[in-house]
Amino acid sequence: MPCPCEDVETRMFDAICLGILVADAVARPIDSWPERGRLVLVPDMQLHTGGCAGNTAVGLARMGFSVGIIGKVGADGFGDFYLRAMQREKVDTTGIIADPSCHTSATMVIVHSDGERSFIHYLGANAELRAEDANMGLVRKARLLHVAGALLTPALDGEPCAGILREAKAAGVTTAMDTAWDSTGRWMKAVAPCLPHVDYFVPSVEEARMMTGRKEPREVAQALLEAGAGTVALKMGTSGCYVRTREREIRLPAYRVATVDATGAGDAFAAGFLAGVLLGWDLERTAKLANAAGGLCTTAMGCTAGLRSLKETQELAERGEALPMD
User: Fold this and answer.
1) How deeply is 117 buried, as exposed, middle or buried, from its count of CB atoms within 10 A (0-12, 13-18, 19+)?
2) pLDDT of the residue at 1
3) Of 47, 88, 281, 283, which is the most exposed, with the fewest CB atoms less than 10 Å away?
4) Of the candidates 248, 320, 321, 312, the residue with the CA atom closest to the CA atom of residue 63
């Protein structure tokens, strides 16, 4: 489905990603926590950019799209690192606010030997991101607005975010939304106001189950469509994805890759899916690209090191070996 913007040629950006920005300290492999007061050594520890908005923006930029970010960091070392890293990726940082009154959000990512992850997260500046921080001038210059990391932006979630999405759609901008795990338990209460203004909703199946109270992917997606979303794409990890519109449904397998670290794979899936939307591809081809982008992300440590060009991602989507479906 092509991006329904009549004046796409005049837009400055293919996409704007609005949402959480996080500095990730990633260590691997760790299968047990050190005893209190003890030090343990790990073979690898790195500092990476993270956060759903940043990860998805980098994924789109690597695939050749013009991308900008709207979000908030602190006026601190992590914030400086984040801005420089995005600029190296050729992501426009005009919409990022460096706020001296707060600290940059950060996560300690513990990667287990099987690639699964555990997290210790500090909300930081993301908790202070508000609707008035969103540069709508940038949004109106984009073909697509993606809200990334909803449920981890408490001052933005719910009606404030719905207002941004509503204004974007009124300006002819296609809208998309992704979520994060909500440890506060708000779930649908925070998401529901936004869904009638979301063209493409791409949560994980676990998050979507919590929102809807349903279990089977088909029922979960149906509930989200009934709540107003235009298209629902459920990320299902090694089980692939399930995509549903009011007219059709698609279930596609994941691809076999050499997994190192699954951090950021869901955001990479979102980048691949949005790339297909921006390219005007049909739903199945779009979902295959999304699965390929998510799979490639897991082949390197951190949220973005495994992300590839559009050509390389397409190659996996077209010729990759599919994992068995459940």
Assistant:
1) middle
2) 39
3) 88
4) 312
Q: Convert the pLDDT of each residue in 154-170 to its tens digit.
A: 999 999 999 999 999 99
Distance from C-alpha of 234 to C-alpha of 204, rounded to nearest angstrom: 5
- Condensed to tens digits (0 to 9), the pLDDT of residues 61-98 reads 999 999 999 999 999 999 999 999 999 999 999 999 99
- Do you know the residue count of the chain? 326
Closest CA to 211 of 240, 194, 189, 233: 189
Determine contact, residues 262/119, Cβ cutoff 8 Å: no
| Claim: this prediction has a pTM higher than 0.90 | yes
Residue 163 is encoded by which pair of tokens? 């207002």
- Which helix (DSSP H) or strand (DSSP E) does residue 174 occupy? strand 174-179
Task: Please report the domains of the chain, with CATH numbers, ordered by start residue.
Answer: 20-31+44-319 (3.40.1190.20)
Whole-number pLDDT of residue 10: 64
User: CA 290, 294, 299, 304 torsion: positive or negative?
Assistant: positive
How far is CA 148 from each of CA 252, 265, 267, rounded to the nearest angstrom?
A: 23, 13, 8
Helix residue ranges per DSSP H, the chain: 52-62, 77-88, 136-140, 159-170, 188-191, 205-212, 217-226, 265-279, 283-297, 310-319
For residue 266, give both structure tokens: 């869901």
Closest CA to 195 of 217, 169, 171: 169
Residues of the chain falling short of pLDDT 70: 1-10, 326
Beta partners for 104?
Answer: none
Dihedral sign, Cα of residue 296, residue 301, residue 307, residue 311: negative
Q: Is the peptide bond before 34 cis (omega within 30 degrees of 0)?
A: no
Contacts of 110 by beta carbon, 8 Å cutoff, 6+ apart: 27, 28, 30, 117, 118, 119, 120
User: How far apart are the C-alpha atoms of 77 and 207, rounded to whole Å?
Assistant: 32
57: alpha, beta or left, given left = phi > 0 and alpha = psi -120 to 50?
A: alpha
